[in-house]
């Protein structure tokens, strides 16, 4: 069985195919990011725009969250520093967002001076971090009144056709000791709240997104999940079979041309405790 260190390595290995990740993962809803930026104190009517603030993004990947954040903050006088430990992700990020600063480092070794950033965000990645090391580092880098947010954008188990697929993946996550945010984000949030470095987490309103995807393209989305990337050939074959059967059954019942892929964007906010 993999331990936490193996999981962190898998997190890095699993995301090397940055182009595939970029193509198949959905974009974050602007509404959710706007609410978050306000709560982080980076936007809003009381914000003094003469003063430049800094937001550090951890695990930025190909910049899916960053580009929505950048558009929301476009005239807010906020410096965005993005980061990711994977070279391939940083390269893809530079191609996609050449005007935004990206640094190669992990959440456990943040390359930023003490108390130098006003906000830290981690979108769909905190579950990959080594907990204590990253919490200590985020706390160190944040200014005394700094805030920290975790966000996830995961497939919704409320979708009827997605449920059997999620149910198939669940034991694979267990078996390979990989944290699945869909099941574990509440535990992660509780752990941060209990860390004594941060206040109790405040949940922001969930935002649902719906994408209409042709059936032949839906598999690509699920094949970008770390648990599928890490599965054995036999597990991958069984997953594909279950996937095809589920989609066929659903389409023959509903007669829909496209499948509705539902995602939930969940965000939680923490304040630094001094
Ligand atoms: C699911 S992707 C999310 C990327 C982006 N934030 C988004 O929302 O699309 C997870 C990212 O976490 C990064 N990652 C994995 N381990 C990490 C660590 N220990 N510290 C920081 N980032 C890490 C991966 O390289 C990958 O880019």
Describe the 3D structure:
Strands 1, 2, 3, 4, 5, 6, 7 and 8 form an eight-stranded mixed beta sheet that branches. By secondary structure, the protein is of the alpha/beta class. The protein is built from eleven helices and eight strands. Helix 4 (64-72) links the parallel strand 1 and strand 2. The longest helix has 22 residues, at 233-254. Helix 3 (30-39) packs across helix 4 and helix 7 packs antiparallel against helix 11 (233-254). The chain is globular and about 60 Å long. It has helices at 4-14, 18-24, 30-39, 64-72, 87-96, 131-141, 162-175, 181-193, 215-223, 226-229, 233-254, and strands at residues 53-58, 78-83, 101-103, 117-123, 142-155, 202-203, 207-213, 259-271. The structure holds S-adenosylmethionine. Residues 8, 11-12, 15, 25, 58-61, 64-65, 84-86, 89, 106-108, 123-125, 128-129 line the site of S-adenosylmethionine. InterPro entries: Diverse_substrate_MTase, Methyltransf_11, SAM-dependent_MTases_sf. Residues 56-149 form the Methyltransferase type domain. Keywords: Methyltransferase, Transferase. Pfam families: Methyltransf_11. This is Methyltransferase type 11 domain-containing protein.
Keywords:
single chain; 274 residues; alpha/beta; 8-stranded mixed sheet; 11 helices; 8 strands; globular; binds S-adenosylmethionine; Diverse_substrate_MTase; methyltransferase
Compute the average pLDDT: 89
Class derived from helix and strand content: alpha/beta
Radius of gyration of CA atoms, rounded to a whole number: 19 Å
Number of helices: 11
> Whole-Å distance between the termini?
38 Å
Strand count: 8
Could you list the spans in which at least 5 consecutive residues all have pLDDT below 50? none
Strand proportion: 15-25%
One letter per element, helices H and strands E, the order comes to: HHHEHEHEEHEHHEEHHHE
What general outline do the C-alpha atoms trace?
A: globular
Main sheet characteristics: 8 strands, mixed
What fraction, in percent, of the residue positions are helical?
A: 40-55%
Which hetero compounds are present in the coordinates? S-adenosylmethionine
């Amino acid at each position: 069985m993999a331990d936490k260190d193996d999981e962190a390595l898998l997190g890095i290995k699993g995301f090397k195919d940055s182009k595939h990740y970029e193509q198949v993962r959905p974009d974050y809803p602007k509404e959710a990011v706007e609410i978050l930026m306000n709560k982080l104190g980076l936007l809003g009517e009381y914000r003094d725009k003469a003063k430049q603030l800094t937001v550090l993004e951890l695990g930025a990947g190909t910049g899916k969250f960053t580009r929505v954040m950048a558009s929301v903050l476009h005239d807010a006088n906020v410096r965005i520093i993005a980061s990711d430990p994977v070279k391939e992700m940083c390269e893809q990020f530079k191609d996609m967002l050449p005007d935004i600063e990206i640094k190669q480092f992990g959440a456990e070794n943040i390359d930023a001076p003490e108390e130098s950033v006003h906000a830290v965000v981690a979108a769909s990645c905190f579950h990959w971090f080594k907990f204590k090391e990253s919490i200590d580092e985020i706390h160190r880098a944040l200014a005394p009144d700094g805030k920290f947010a975790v966000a996830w954008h995961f497939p919704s188990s409320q979708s009827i056709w997605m449920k059997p697929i999620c149910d198939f993946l669940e034991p694979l996550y267990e078996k390979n000791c990989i944290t699945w945010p869909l099941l574990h984000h509440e535990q992660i949030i509780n752990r941060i709240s209990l860390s004594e470095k941060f206040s109790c987490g405040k949940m922001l309103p969930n935002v649902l997104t719906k994408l209409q995807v042709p059936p032949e393209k839906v598999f690509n989305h699920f094949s970008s999940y770390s648990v599928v990337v890490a599965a054995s050939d036999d597990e991958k074959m069984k997953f594909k079979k279950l996937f095809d059967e589920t989609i066929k059954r659903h389409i023959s019942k509903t007669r829909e041309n496209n499948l509705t892929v539902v995602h939930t964007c969940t965000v939680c906010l923490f304040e630094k405790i001094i």
